[in-house]
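Re: the multi-chain job from yesterday

Posting the exact lines I submitted so nobody has to dig through the queue logs.
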Amino acid sequence: MDRAYEPSLADPEQAIQYALPTPDPGTGSMGSGEGSAGVTTPEAVGMRVRKRNGGSEPVDVNKIVRAVQRCGAGLDAVDPLRVATRTISGLYDGATTSELDRLSIQTAASLIAEEPQYSKLAARLLGTYIDKEVANQDIMSFSQSIKAGVEAGLISERVAEFVQENQRKLNDAIDPSRVALFEYFGLRTVYDRYLLKDPHSRDVLETPQYFFMRVACGLAQDPAEAIEFYHLISSLVYLPSSPTLFNSGSQRTQLSSCYLLDSPEDDLTAIYRRYNDVAQLSKFAGGIGLAYHRIRSKGSLIRGTNGHSNGIVPWLKTLDSSVAAVNQGGRRKGAACVYLESWHADIEDFLELRDNTGDDARRTHNLNLANWVPDLFMKRVEAGEDWSLFDPKVVPHFTDIYGEEFERAYEQAEAEGLASRKVPARELYGRMMRTLAQTGNGWMTFKDASNRKCNQTGAERTDGKPSVVHLSNLCTEIIEVTSQGETAVCNLGSINIGRFVVGGEIDYVRLRQVARIAMRYLDRVIDINYYPTAEAKSSNQRWRPVGLGLMGLQDVFFKLGLPFDSERARALSRRVQEEIYFAALDMSCELAEELGAHPAFDETRAAVGKFQWELWDGVEVEDPARWDALRERIKTHGLRNSLMLAIAPTATIASIAGCYECIEPQISNLFKRETLSGDFLQINNYLVLELKKLGKWTPEMRQRIKNAEGSIQSLEELPAELRAVFRTAWEVPQRSLIDMAAERGAFIDQSQSLNLFMETPTIGKLSSMYLYAWKQGLKTTYYLRSRPATRIRQTDSSVSAQPGEADSDVKDYSDNDAVVCSLENPESCEACQ
Amino acid sequence: MLLDPGMDLTLRPMRYPVFYEMYRNAIKNTWTVEEVDFSTDLVDLQHRLMPAERHMINRLVAFFATGDSIVANNLVLNLYKHINAPEARMYLSRQLYEEALHVQFYLTLLDTYIPDLKEREEAFQAVTNIPSIKKKAEFCFKWMDTVQSMEACRTPEDRRKFLLNLICFATCIEGLFFFAAFAYVYFMRSRGLLNGLAAGTNWVFRDESCHMAYALEVVETVRKEEPELFDDELRNSVVQMLEEAVECETAFAEDLLNQGVSGLSMRDMRQYLEFIADQRLGNLGMAKRFEAKNPFAFMDLQDVQELSNFFERRVSAYQVAVSGDVGFDEEF
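And the result, structure tokens for all chains:
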């Protein structure tokens, strides 16, 4: 029996005629397919659906309407009849009831661009569908869901026992109403990829609420903790990163997001061992950062064979294939980023690895690339001097030093004539910029800023060698030391800051509370985590780093009506970060008091009383007294974690939470997300609300925003303040993003995934921008986002040929034409001149 | 005038800079088949597609196997000869390369999708074996034949014939047959299926959009130069041609969808074809014929800027050409 729809009782509503306009005999047209006036064609009326029990019944519009109505409570702008009629229009005769359910969900989702409330409607319909799928397997409670997971071999014994012992408390804590917090895209993502599935039937064994509780139980030591963490994540104010959501409570608890591997040593065995490490680490949803600084360059002599090396490119080609081959259980593809220091003699080949022309044997389409740039290089660029390139075999010591020590060693090697060759520094810098413009890859990350401002590089290690940061990670927000014996690990989570806006301000008290709870469970992950390699385990236990981040900063600014680059937005972004940093340190100190400081605490800068902001120039804090007090406590108890903050891109978890990603401005007021779950249209709900207030949310307005590729800057009838708030990432000055990142950076002990945006990049603009980013002291930058050179023809606009009256002398351009043509064809648009 | 017979070689002064711009923009969108990752497609084909959907995809790729080759042939045999401006021919040369790239893409696709050699060969012969595909090919050949023997566009009658061929390939073949084919692909992708096919198709779609825009620009240029060519008879022929194309494509859709695909009904597909036909008439500055609205929200999606989650897909949006010198005081 299909539970989505009530049986069709004698119902007065049934008397209403939904049958509709007969097709126009002249054209054979099937009607408009729009509006409540509805559409059912004669064929649809005779259509039948197959039920689960094998029987069949006629398709009934009323049933669908009622099911939609039930889910649409409180959504005043949705039209259940419209969803029902459009659903039927897409159906074929003999479809199953479950196909009908799915189609009604898709139909509701397809209306989101017209009216954002359809997102909630689609989410609720999907919620009902998931509940039914779970209930059909006789799973009626959280503990039954865990039991089913155990039987399917998916749940760890520890969690199984924990739930068994505490089933009453845990079952009672489940709050099914929380499903209402989801937007469609978020719930869809959870359903398609996060909920545990029966290995054979592929039906999901948990509802979204059971899923959150399962994740919480995986990290908790007692029921009170489980319930505390369940409430935190199910209310979407904080979410752990995807690996934790995927694997917490499961048989294989690989909960960390990132692994950073030092460059393999320069020999064949070490190089091949590294491929195995990468495969093991990416198998369970980790992203990989991997340096190649130590590998000899092209033309270097190989003593064993008396031949010459082909340099790093062939090794990277193999890495490329290896990464592509490891597919994380179909849930997400393996991914890696290779770092190379700017003095490495293969740097130019490295910069071409992502080009889509040239010899494919020297291209790596799956690898991400990052430049690990020493200050000296940037200084030479600025001064217009030459830059020497070296074979690491000749200068093996370069990799393990930074700052002045590196500069001395580099200049000495130059003086001794050890360089392979010289290039003008600006020429190489120009090539780096070109790679960024053409591929978005080749990220600029700064070796010296990363080392000087890293808490872990405070002192020599106990074995007398210096601790050095050799690279960042896949998303450039993790800055941790590595060595041959230490693979850096980080587990991440992000606070959804938009949810802390109360009465025109951020609720800082609650923010600190949430940051503290988050820290406790991030720290917990370190002990529960499954480590795919011994190097990862030993490193993580020594340093205990975590990465507490942030998402939804743009939501805050929209809620408060602040332009992204306004003074208030800047001050607020900095304050938020300061509060989170303070709360994290405070909690980590408390954990140290309770459980002991991390073993390498004495090697950190914190051990000598240095906070991150004291490593930046001229930073003053809100309330120095509380920092002094904290410093004293840290002196006594130490810290449980050497690193605590990192702002990750949050792509997937921001989708789940329904907020804007990370610290980023919105990409567009209307855009499409392409994911493994399908394509989803995202519209700026905040803008729609504002436009509704102005009475301007009309189909015409929608079309104009779409034609303008999600920008409202050309819609001059809208108030200027509104347009300033709703600018896109392409329209906000990038200088302000860099300034904000630098101010915030003083309170981030690791780093941030800072994307930069440029509609039409040129070498001149890029070289100015990245020099500025370096001067501001940023540790890392991430993608350069640019836009496609030409676009797909819009299906619903007549762009190029003007209507027949084009013969007349005076052309009448609508705003619409002007917007479209300026985007499609900036050089030759008459309307704009 | 653009259609005057001859082999003009003079680039300066440039008579039609718009074509040169189109050529330059096309260069910026260079992609290669090697960038497309089909790995998840194979899993989808084996495990996630319903039999009815698999049938639909098999037919569809069989159409792709020959579609672009026909367009390329027409370009070489019929368009290049008559569009007499070197800058316009530069664009055509670039388009020819793109058509070859598309052929390569679909060749790789079929080789990947159909492991059985015999089945694969059959797919490549679809144009003779499968009636619904044969019918579409015949439609194309019919409009090629009308100009094939024409040496030069001397008379207004010749020029109208040429225009009909150009309009047919732009609006019916690239603008309707291909757009319909893209709809099936995007329907699958809107549900998270066949991402490799969709990724490549996205690039093909972008190229085809440009080809169509170019052809329409040629039509528009000729219209400005020789408005008298655009008489009622020509207009009527265009309408008839589009009607015929809609019928051909409807028959193809019936073949594809005959096993029932939920969310893609025959009714909606027909309406979509009529909607597209109206769009094409609009592109030509003519009145709508069907007054149909777009029933496919997932096609609407294709107009919207993409934001790829890079863990999941490659970002297909980067520019190829970039210029300028290193400097430190530019605005950003």
